[in-house]
């Protein structure tokens, strides 16, 4: 696990100090060692966190005749059989690292065939000394990040945007179109980031940079097509694929632990892995105590659990540092416990397994149509799903206009066309509210409908509305929020976070499962829960999803924190973005129990903290060291 940076720029004569400065900006991704390559107009840099082939896996790595070189961030879990195959074909290896398999595989098979063969999480770049061509790729789901900037003859790429700031020809400019959608989605929702002209290489894509021209092509996407397996066969396939994935994801020459919440996803992974160390987080609030439940499970499984407690003061102190590491504003409250959880775990282990991706692959979110606890409503809704589409959609429109009654939302979301109501898991401000609260310069942006249409257009032929929603979440919420914070906030603490659910072999199983096995009268993620119940205690297999519950209500209504946020909202620079009077009124109203706008306040607060770090303080790393207490 590492960080990579690089650029092509004819205008810079001495490239070495530039690439070194870029590498220094991401030293947290690889504190163990570094390497670089400078050739003609090209410079590549690498920071290493040693996981596999600790002694000899330094990068860049070269092929036999030194005509090609690679820098790589990630892990290839099936590298050993691929290595054996390549050796039989005559390739000579100088290391035991998975990185070198990518380089020789690229030589042997080309980029598209290589990408079909590998199993893992990755972002890599290969440089051809003879042609000057650069080829790079990002993994299937977008677990590992890869950004680029291509303007006026300067092409920059890397794991984190903050490294771009060290390049003298990078023009730092706020992307004004990003703010309004962010207020709705809670994360950077456009292909272009919050930095003007900085884009993500999309998940499941590779790029080629030849003779100054950049091309980006898709090599993989998930396809939800129901298979004919029985329910029992489905459960067995889930369990088998996840066990194999956890085994593959546990390959390491350094200690491996697991995150443990009270939910089924991380609990299932932990029970399969049975690591020496598990970790959980609580807050100094009585509102939520997820970590104590996780401790109970660890005790039942006979595993050691370290439980951290985050105080409100330390959480707020950490916010500038968290937003610094994220590169772009992300108001998902779970960023806070995730940062502290990886900080806690980093004292014992270098690799940690987690449960991200299970909800998207196995239909675990309430918004897919799981809002009622009433068995009767669930059974009725299951029957309504079977109606012809025209009748079903007509009924949904009637339900939407009705006064609320118990079960209405569950029935509506079970019958409505996904495109009519679903924009993804995160929704903070309505689009109209967002437009009203920002200033005129920030109202011009793609509509929410246009943003989600990119994904919906690719599944327009789907008859299954749940599959449409899963597809959208995989390419919006999961790629741009869930996985982004998982990578950044683990690497902030020089840790590798691995996600066994997001394995292409697990995905092969998940994409074929009929929705009736996943979302039905007995609950969400049903087949996964049944599989988990065969190894986990029943109470944990059937637990409702909580996510990472964070007491932001308690925090904002704490006098000292309220005053800090109010001081921030009152600063002069805030007037550029927001109707200052309106956001102060919203904050005061919440503090005085007149509204429940905590998520809106937190989303505005997060953006302002991020902007202050990157544009007022010029992207300097905040000099704070927030601490997490160990529970007795």
Q: Can you give me a brief rundown of this structure?
A:
With 632 residues, this protein is α+β, with helices and mostly antiparallel strands.
Structural commentary:
The strands form 3 sheets. This protein has a 6-stranded antiparallel β-sheet with strand order 2-3-1-9-8-10, covered by helices on one side. Strands 4-5-6-7-11-12 form a 6-stranded antiparallel β-sheet, covered by helices on one side. The chain has a 6-stranded mixed β-sheet with strand order 17-16-13-14-15-18, sandwiched between helices. The protein has a domain at 2-218: Aminohydrolase, N-terminal nucleophile (Ntn) domain (Glutamine Phosphoribosylpyrophosphate, subunit 1, domain 1). The chain is of the alpha+beta class and 632 residues long. The chain is built from 26 helices and 18 strands. The radius of gyration is 24 Å and the shape is globular.
């Amino acid at each position: 696990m590492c960080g990579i940076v690089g650029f092509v720029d004819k205008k810079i004569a001495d490239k070495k100090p530039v690439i070194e400065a870029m590498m220094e900006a991401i030293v947290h991704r690889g504190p163990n060692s570094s390497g670089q390559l400078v050739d003609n107009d090209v410079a590549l840099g690498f920071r290493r966190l040693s996981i596999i082939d600790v002694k000899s896996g330094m990068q860049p790595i070269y092929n036999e005749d030194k005509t090609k070189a690679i820098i790589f961030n990630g892990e290839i879990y099936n590298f050993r059989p691929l290595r054996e195959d390549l050796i039989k074909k005559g390739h000579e290896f100088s290391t035991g690292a998975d990185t070198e398999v990518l380089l020789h595989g690229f030589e042997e098979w080309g980029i598209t065939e290589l990408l079909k063969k590998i199993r893992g999480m990755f972002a890599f770049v290969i440089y051809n000394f003879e042609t000057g061509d650069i080829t790079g790729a990002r993994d299937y789901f977008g677990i590992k990040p890869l950004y680029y900037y291509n303007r006026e003859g300067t092409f920059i790429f890397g794991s984190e945007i903050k490294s771009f700031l060290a390049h003298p020809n990078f023009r730092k400019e706020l992307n004004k179109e990003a703010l309004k959608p962010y207020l709705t989605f809670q994360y950077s929702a456009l292909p272009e980031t919050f930095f003007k002209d900085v884009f993500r290489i999309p998940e499941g894509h590779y790029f080629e940079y030849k003779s100054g021209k950049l091309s980006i092509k898709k090599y993989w996407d998930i396809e939800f097509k129901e298979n004919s397996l029985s329910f029992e066969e489905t459960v067995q396939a889930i369990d088998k694929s996840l066990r194999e994935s956890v085994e593959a994801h546990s390959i390491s020459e350094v200690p491996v632990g697991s995150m443990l919440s009270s939910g089924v996803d991380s609990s299932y992974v932990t029970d399969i892995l049975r690591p020496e160390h598990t970790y959980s987080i609580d807050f100094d609030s009585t509102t939520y105590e997820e970590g104590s439940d996780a401790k109970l499970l660890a005790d039942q499984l006979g595993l050691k659990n370290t439980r951290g407690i985050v105080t409100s003061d330390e959480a707020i102190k950490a916010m500038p540092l968290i937003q610094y590491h994220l590169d772009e504003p992300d108001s998902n409250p779970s960023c806070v416990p995730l940062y502290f959880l990886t900080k806690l775990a980093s004292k014992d282990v270098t690799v940690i397994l987690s449960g991200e991706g299970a909800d998207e692959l196995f239909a675990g979110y309430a918004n897919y149509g799981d809002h009622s606890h009433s068995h009767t409503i669930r059974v009725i809704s299951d029957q309504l799903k079977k109606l012809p589409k025209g009748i079903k959609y007509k009924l949904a429109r009637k339900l939407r206009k009705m006064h609320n009654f118990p079960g209405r939302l569950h029935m509506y979301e079970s019958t409505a066309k996904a495109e009519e109501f679903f924009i993804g898991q995160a929704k903070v401000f309505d689009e109209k509210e967002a437009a009203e609260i920002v200033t005129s310069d920030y109202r011009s942006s793609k509509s929410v409908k246009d943003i989600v249409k990119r994904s919906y257009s690719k599944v327009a032929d789907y008859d299954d509305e749940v599959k449409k929603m899963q597809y959208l979440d995989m390419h919006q919420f999961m790629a741009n929020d869930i996985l982004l914070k998982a990578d950044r906030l683990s690497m902030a603490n020089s840790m590798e976070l691995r996600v066994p659910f997001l394995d292409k072999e697990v995905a092969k199983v998940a994409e074929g499962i009929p929705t009736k096995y996943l979302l039905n009268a007995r609950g969400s993620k049903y087949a996964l829960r049944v599989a988990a119940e065969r190894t986990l205690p029943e109470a944990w297999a059937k637990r409702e999803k909580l996510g990472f519950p964070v007491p932001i209500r308690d925090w904002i209504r704490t006098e000292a924190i309220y005053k800090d946020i109010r001081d921030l909202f009152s600063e002069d620079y805030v007037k550029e973005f927001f109707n200052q009077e309106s956001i102060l009124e919203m904050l005061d109203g919440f503090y005085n129990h007149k509204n429940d706008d905590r998520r809106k306040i937190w989303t505005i607060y997060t953006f302002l903290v991020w902007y202050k770090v990157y544009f007022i303080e010029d992207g300097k790393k905040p000099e704070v060291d927030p601490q997490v207490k160990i529970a007795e």
